[in-house]
Amino acid sequence: MKRLFLLFLLLPALFPVASCANTSDFSQEDTQNSISLENSTDIVAVAESFNYQDYAEVLKAYVSDRGLVNYEALQANRAKLDKFNQALGLVTPSVYNSWSEAEKLAFLINAYNSFTLQSIIDQNPLKKSIRDIPGVWRRRKFEIAGESKTLDNIEHDILRKEFNEPRIHAALVCAAISCPPLRNEPYLPETIDSQLDDQVRKFIAGSYGLKIERSRGRVYLSSIFKWFGKDWLPSYRIEDKFTGNSKQKAVLNFISQYLNESDREYLEKGKYKVSYLDYDWSLNKQN
Fold it and tell me: Which whole-number Å values give the CA distances from 212 to 32, 99, 170, 174, 204, in the listed order?
């Protein structure tokens, strides 16, 4: 009886999923590649416990340890990604709202990254940059938890607005070289805290997150820290250490906890100028 009730709740969500390919952002090829979850057992399973297995297999097969993506191979073998993305839309709002914060965070971050992968491989031929895809962030819509959302909706209207978790900026990957690396495993509720910490460490240790030049008295930050600097203020605001404006100090306070003692002490003294690294929007693809 419980399974029938859950199935009844999920039936309305099938209709927006089916009509998604009819929006202006989707091509005929998208419609042909869509996967229909007609098996009621599959639908009920979505409600009872969300499964990241298909997405895990996609990430393992097509994302390198450096976070680069084999888009050509994924484009040619996209069935599992499409099935996973459709499953995201079959989760009902009531089921989503029953989840813990960790479950919601994992769900939303995985959704953002998976929808971004879909946006890239929907282009034929592949674009050199995600910015070459018209409306990719603000107009192109996806079905998630029974609603139609853009990538901007997921990032700015849900994740940034409803969660005080600035580490998401090391986890959301916009398919650019200067983005944080894409993990080749999904975020899971039981491990997401350690995964987010690991993402921050990887990002600031790489070429596009943080650069300290003591000889020149310069500290270079990713432009991500400029665009979203206010997200660090609630938890990391500080006035008596570091340098720069309030947002820059909060960001540096946050970053310092992931650095070695020498670099942390250098940043705390504040005798440097803060600048931002140029952002490389080239596609984060494997060569």
Answer: 49, 40, 19, 25, 11
Q: Is the peptide bond before 125 cis (omega within 30 degrees of 0)?
A: yes
In the chain the first and final C-alpha atoms are separated, in Å, by: 52
Strand partners of residue 176: 283
Name the token pair of 124.
């034929």
Q: Which residues are 28's β-sheet partners?
A: none
Half-sphere exposure of 261 (CA within 13 A, CB side): 0
Pairwise CA distance, residues 218 & 277, whole Å: 11
Q: Which two tokens mark 287?
A: 């060569």
Tokens 């490389």 -> residue: 280
Q: How far apart are CA 28 and CA 32, in angstroms?
A: 6
pLDDT in tens, 31-56: 333 334 444 434 434 445 699 999 99
Contact 271, 172 (CB under 8 A): no
The residue extents of the domains of the chain are 2-196, 204-276
Cα 188 from chain centre: 13
**Which range among 9-18, 50-59, 100-109, 169-178 shows the weakest confidence by mean pLDDT?**
9-18
Residue 62 gets which letter from DSSP?
Answer: H
Give a three-class secondary structure readout of 71-133: HHHHHHCCHHHHHHHHHHHHCCHHHHHHCCHHHHHHHHHHHHHHHHHHHHHCCCCCCCEHHHC
